[in-house]
Amino acid sequence: MFNNHAGINLTESKLQVVEINYRDDSFYLETIEQIIHAESLTPNLEEEKIISILQNSFDKLNKRKQLITKNISFSLPNNFFKIFEIPYDDSLVKKDLMEQFRWELSILFPQCNPNNFLLQHIEIDKSSVRQEKRAIVIAIDKNHVSCINKFCERNDLQLKFIDNVHLASNAFLYLEKPNNENEVCLTIYIDQKYSSLSCVEGVHPFYFKVLKPNSQNIFEELTETIKKMEDYKLHIKDFSKVLLYGQDIAEEFENKLKSFFGLPLKKVNPFERLKIDEKIKNNPFYRIKYNSFTAATGIALRII
What we know:
This protein is an alpha/beta fold. 31% of the residues lie in helices and 31% in strands.
């Protein structure tokens, strides 16, 4: 039994929603919508302020189109997470491993209380590219999870998942079906401020980097990353393609990326495998801005 599901991607300036419903033995894109927040949404805001911004945007959404489903998941931008890579001891039981990660968090981010974070991690040695016992750790403040949970309770919504915007978009790695499990590709998420890059073998990330928000030239950071790949005996020609996700990607920038990498580049369309009703066809978010909805769609597809 498939449950209908809505994914919400939050950025500093907007709420993006994608609702996917299952009917007539097919998955349908039921809703695609974007609401501009009344105020900027940043992780340093007080709990009630965050909830107030979410509620204001959600009320505007309901005036345009009410969601059918009560099941909802969220993706949040990179600056809502502490993301770092560290060695890990695979002989540790999960509880002890989490304690190790929390200790590392306290060292790397001394201003944070490590006990106030929820953690997930990616073991990079699941790829054949890097066999070191290292993990990419993604940590989120429990207060932000509490904000979203309270918002859902107030609106009679059932919270399913919360994830990082880039990792949510990486759901499309599974749908892209790499030619073989050792195929290496780059995925890039372009956000309003905190863009990121991930190197993946098959569906297993082995490198993740949040790009500097104040960087004047994203291509300098991309060059650094490609140089870093030489440490793992990888060169640009070893990558099969670049998958591009994210916000308001101009054709000129897309062409520059193609030229920079010299690789096949795909601006991911998250809707290409979903059925749609006639009323969706003329929606500009569906026709033109589709790439901006990779995270919202990726998190909506999580339970399908």
